[in-house]
Amino acid sequence: MATGSFAIEGGGPPRPPPPVARGVVGWVRRNLLANPFDAVVTVLLGLAIAWLVPRAFAWAVVDAVWYTPDGSACRAAAGACWAIIAEKHRLILFGTYPYGEQWRGAAVIALFVGLIGLSAIDRIPLRLRLAAWAAASVAILVLMLGGLFGLQPVGTHLWGGLPLTIVIFVATVAGGMPLAVLLALGRQSELPAIRAVSVGIVEVVRGLPLIAVLFVASLIFPLFVPPELSVDKLVRAIIGMIIFFGAYAAEIVRGGLQAIPAGQHEAARALGLGYHPRMRLVVLPQALALVVPALLNDIIRAFKNTTFVAILGLFDVLGAAKVALEDPVWVRYAPEVYIFIFLLYLLFCLAFSRRGMAIERRLAGRRR
Amino acid sequence: MPPATRRPAFWRTAGFRATLYQVLVIALLVGAVAWMTETARQAMHARGIASGFDFLLDRAGFAIGHAFFVFTPQDTYLRAFVVGLGNSLVVAAAGLVTATVMGVALGLSRLSGNWLLSRAAGLYVELFRNTPQLVQIVFWYALFTLLPGPRQAWNLLDLAFVSNRGLLMPWPAQSGVFGLALLLLVPGVFLARAFLRLADRRRRAGRPLRGTALLAAVVLLAPSAVGWLALGAPTGWSVPALRGFNFVGGLGLSPEFLALYFGLSFYIAAFVAEIVRAGILSVGRGQVEAAQAIGLGRADLYRKIVFPQAMRVVVPPLAAQYISLVKNSSLGVAIGYPELFSVTNTVLTLSGHTIEAIAIMALVYLVLALAIGALADIVNRAVRIRER
């Protein structure tokens, strides 16, 4: 032992942990009452929850009306009127699609949900998953349009509800991604004219509200092309969606391109690869893999943004809900309908965002 | 083949191809624009539609109700645009402030050690982030229209009233004076900052000032107080009261304004919360430990160590959210709040000048987005890491 030390030789026996750190009481002390401020917050929040939750439960479940064909029971009830969902769910989910053909819309929804599930299975090779999406896109189009395999043709002006939302969403991402890659590469290009055009498109579109881009696509576009080339309302809306999504996703892809070290470019060049194979085989796969989580954020936004077409007069879920609420019997129960739509979107968006988090964790693990 | 002795044909050189691609892109672009313009010109000529911006000075012939600026059918289209922009800016400014305050509070709450608080904040963020903003706005509007009428309005101490006509609250009778006092807070902030620096210098010199916080507050409020006193120190309030079927006096916020304001600020607050959380988590654990080791208090730890470093991560995405909030104020069109987009929609329907109206609107939104972007750039430059 060094001279001049005051340490007790051998030390004392190990002491037990403080009693308050263990068990339920310990957990409460640590997580709810760690200091006076926490205690006050806990009490206030606890009171708010104790006030709110029983009332919300009573409104949504206990006093709610689940079924009444003419709305009479709803007028008498103190709680929510879920009967409007029971009454109008076909209209909200499928819009103005011909009643007898709505199984096709249901099939589109099932296909879409199945694909989301399939995409989450990492064991299936990416190529196969992408091929499944491509095949399903064609299937969705055939199911919606009809005219093939003995299916009765249905014009796009009759499309509506969740299948319409899915069509717009899938088309937006499928069309927007290539545009995004083109714009991102254009912005990184060494050719000044191409760079200027790309920068101009991206900045202008990103500076405008989506609804303005949709208006330009649906109101101005037909003025500028001869009537023979004028496409229908749905296609114009999708074009607007694609351009908007492309401009935002382009900035994300650009971030990925900037993250690729110069050595990768130089090595590819040293191998004698020209611009196109260099980008396609070396740079883009790495850049896109890097930005998948960020892209998923944009994809979630694209899914939520499909509701904007309701302002253009298309009958997506929101547009169809507005039609359902024009019925004077049910007009009072708008909050119930919108809560139903919230849950619908919440389900899909949470699925997407959980997926993004999983990918992010995997990427972080790989880099370590 | 002899290696690299013969020069490649000129159409195979990189320089030629670069020029070719660019000429092609430009030609395609110019060609498309020229062709489309010509088509539009012919179509409009055939239909006898006049073009140009002269219509801006014509009588608009429509009214705008329930908003912050007076607009009558006698006013011009130009004034309609200005009024619409004003309404957009009011709702966007209110939304920006609310979204920021709520977002910071929610972001800090999510990181709190209090289990209940962090879970509640997490639930809020997930709920508001994963549902469409437009549905949120329409939902609030539907809720407000179901409130009782003015005669059965919810009454808060006989001062404020909530009904299906919106929210009514007391408001300074001479609001111009109070507005000026609010504006004078800006020099107050600069004075207070200068004072705090002085106090800091004295503290370091070993002669600390007593009651620094109180004095700083006085310095902060002094210009406003002087301005208010100089203009006669008005204290009169306009309090809403029920007369017959409706209210008079006070400040009225229409259900349309409230629904759009809730929809904009509650939605963006969820995103701001995530940005703030990521920013704070980006500050190294060691920084916090080092600050605690030198005995910095909790307030100083956040004010001097954590926030300045978190700002670098926070500012760029925050600016993007602000721009998104301002742009999405255009969703007022869905519930009839007369903001810029909604007014543009009315103008182009009534005047028939679709292209001109949309061009004006697009230009205004672009300028707004660029202005916020430029401001964010200035802030970003002020907070970035200065490496030697």
UniProtKB/TrEMBL annotation, chain A:
Domain ABC transmembrane type-1 intervals: 158-352
The transmembrane segments are: 39-62, 103-121, 130-151, 163-186, 207-225, 308-325, 337-353
Molecular function per GO: transmembrane transporter activity
Query: What family does the database annotate?
Result: Belongs to the binding-protein-dependent transport system permease family. HisMQ subfamily.
Q: Which PANTHER family match?
A: INNER MEMBRANE AMINO-ACID ABC TRANSPORTER PERMEASE PROTEIN YHDY, MEMBRANE COMPONENT OF AMINO ACID ABC TRANSPORTER
Q: Its GO biological process terms?
A: amino acid transport
- Write one Pfam family the protein is assigned to: BPD_transp_1
Keywords from the UniProt entry: Cell membrane, Membrane, Transmembrane, Transmembrane helix, Transport
- Membrane topology classification: Multi-pass membrane protein
Keyword Cytoplasm attached: no
Where is it predominantly found?
membrane
Provide the Gene Ontology terms for cellular component.
ATP-binding cassette (ABC) transporter complex
Cell membrane among keywords = yes
The protein's name: General L-amino acid transport system permease protein
Q: Which Gene3D superfamilies match?
A: MetI-like (1.10.3720.10)
Cellular localization per UniProt: Cell inner membrane; Cell membrane
UniProtKB/TrEMBL annotation, chain B:
Q: Cite the InterPro entries for this sequence.
A: AA_ABC_transptr_permease_3TM, ArtM/GltK/GlnP/TcyL/YhdX-like, MetI-like, MetI-like_sf
Write the record's keywords in alphabetical order, separated by commas.
Answer: Amino-acid transport, Cell membrane, Membrane, Transmembrane, Transmembrane helix, Transport
A single Gene Ontology molecular function, please?
transmembrane transporter activity
**Pfam families per the record?**
BPD_transp_1
Gene Ontology cellular-component annotations: ATP-binding cassette (ABC) transporter complex
Chief place of localization: membrane
Tell me where in this chain the ABC transmembrane type-1 domain is found: 85-376
Record's PROSITE patterns?
A: ABC_TM1
Report the domain of life of the source organism. Bacteria
* Membrane-topology annotation of the record: Multi-pass membrane protein
Tell me where it resides.
Answer: Cell inner membrane; Cell membrane
Cleaved signal peptide residues: none
Matching CDD domains? TM_PBP2
Chain segments annotated as transmembrane: 20-37, 49-69, 89-113, 171-192, 213-237, 257-276, 357-379
Q: Which GO terms describe its biological process?
A: amino acid transport
Q: Which family does it belong to?
A: Belongs to the binding-protein-dependent transport system permease family. HisMQ subfamily.
Question: Which PANTHER family did the record assign?
Answer: AMINO-ACID ABC TRANSPORTER PERMEASE PROTEIN YHDX-RELATED, MEMBRANE COMPONENT OF AMINO ACID ABC TRANSPORTER
Task: Please report the name of this protein according to its UniProt entry.
Answer: General L-amino acid transport system permease protein
